[in-house]
Amino acid sequence: MLFKEVNHLPNIKSSERSVKTDAERRARNFAVRSTIRTVSRKVVESVTAGNTDEAKALLINASKTIDKAASKGVVHKNAAARKKSRLARKINALAN
Question: Which of 93, 83, 82, 91 is nearest to 62 (CA)?
Fold first, then answer.
């Protein structure tokens, strides 16, 4: 669900504007979170297939995506660090 439908608008002008910007922000955050899930899934799929080199390359891309989301405030910085750490642990377990 990208856009929530608004059944009523507030009476205050600034509140009307914030409803619009909230919808735009929600849609953008949804897209970024979806991208994070996609890159994470690609790393996990590569690990389960046993492709260490491909997984390491995908981890670099995933880390970049996750860090960018954290810098924009889509995910908390600690949550971003946790996600990256879990992906890295999976790759390290494969290498050993």
Answer: 83
24 token code pair: 């735009």
Task: Decide if 10 is inside a domain.
Answer: no
CA 95/CA 19 separation, integer angstroms: 49
Alpha carbon 30 to chain centroid, angstroms: 8
Task: For residue 1, tell me if it sits in a domain.
Answer: no
Range of the structural domain that residue 40 is part of = 16-95
User: pLDDT tens digits for 50-71?
Assistant: 999 999 999 999 999 999 999 9
What is the value of pTM for the model shown? 0.82
Which has the closest alpha carbon to 87: 49, 56, 53? 56
Residue 22 lies in a domain: yes
Report how many domains make up the chain. 1
Residue 33 maps to which CATH number? 1.20.58.110
